[in-house]
Please model this.
Amino acid sequence: MKIFLWIIFPYICLTSFVLGHVWRYKYDKFGWTSRSSELYEKKILSWGSPLFHFGILGVFAGHVVGLLVPESWTNDMGISEHTYHLVAVIMGTAAGIATVTGLVLLIYRRRTTPSVFRVTSVTDKIMYPLLGIVIALGLVNTIGVNLFGMGGYSGGYNYRNSVAVWFRDVLTFHPSAAPMVGAPWSFQVHALFAMLLLGAWPFTRLVHVLAAPVGYMFRPYIVYRSREALGASRPPRRGWEKSEYRVHASGRPRR
Model:
């Protein structure tokens, strides 16, 4: 079971992540979108969307540093483990709270606004709970374990010597289950659900994360031309001016 959870299962999810995006781009290129519902409701969206997106960017940045940058590198830069731990907890807590608040608002909006709920797909109903579980477990790790010492870790848990090592070993194709065996249950479950989210990613609206509108900055200008013969040079007609068209007895319009 340990070999399956920490060696086989991650590669199943990562394979689904890579091949799923290739499949989605090839067969559902026009569906590669966030499926915006801004036209249906804007008031809650104007609060929930910025909170969620800016919060998740902070969470992503924290994971990149925490998982991909070894502890020895930050030590060589003069950043002690205590300083790193303090900054990670403060920034991670702020980003996590913003993300959760935004996600709650977005889910509330989707469930209580009939027009938005009607365009909710099956993949949305799977993606939102899965994303919520991953984020909630991340907050348990950041606030519960590393801030309040939940589980007996009074000084916090140094995941950079276990979870981060396991993750880098998976990416470099030298997987080992040993680093995850002694990790707290919340970190283990968080890692498993995060892998599951990556596996489901290509089949949800989350694909829009990889759709940066780079071409928008270099596209040509859009030129609008009038269909009228005189175009924009025609003087504006007064509201009570008679129409140039009359209706013939046959019912056909004529000039």
